User: What shape does this take?
Amino acid sequence: MNNELITLEQLPIIKYHLEQLSVEIKEKVDRANSLVVNEDTVKDVKTVRAELNKEFNELETQRKQVKSAIMAKYDEFEEIYKENVSNLYKNADAELKQKIDNVENQLKQEKEDELREFVKQHCEANKIHIEFEQIGLNITLSASMKSLKEQALAFIEKVANDLKLIELEEHKDEILLEYNKNGFDFSKAKLDIITRCKQLEEIKKQQEEVQLQINDEAEIVEKVNEIITPKEIIEDDELITVTFTITDTKENVLKVREFMKKEEINYD
Assistant: This one.
């Protein structure tokens, strides 16, 4: 194929004219830069600067016009190029890619089907259940079947051994649930359950202590009621004398005294 079918003919001509123009511009710029700027010449220098800017702006306008004209031609060329060149290549590439993908996907599916059957057989042999996706095999065309089966078998044997160890644990049911939930990590599952059981035991202990305290308080109230409620009927406004002993901390004794003061109960 001739690699010079697409060429640009006008750029060298434009480059030649700009190189000629550059000589004139350099002379003007050099003269401007050589001017001495002081109080007497500053006005003239401003005029020179304004003339240079004017010339530059005129050339910029021409440059933009050239760019617009070139781009219009380029856009026209690009449409022709797409229609006759790039679209043909791209369509061919897409079609070939689709055909290649179809074949490769079929090959990968066949490899996956064989691995699924392999996993099923070994799970049945070990009397365990594992979802194929849980093994996490990266099935690619380049991965050898031998390597993939070794990975799958290692995973199955690990799970089988873990399940035997779980059967020996005190909280085997809880550990098994955690083991299945957290990705077949026996050590983590066991640690999590032991920690959880300790937390539950601590909560239960605290609840029992609270209940004992409630029971003690109820017993005290019952004894007080027995003391202050004689067998005979006493009117509400009738004065009675009751003697009892409080055995507690100083803080709690003071609380009782404050309570009696607040309720205006006479005591010695």
Residues 9-168 form one domain.
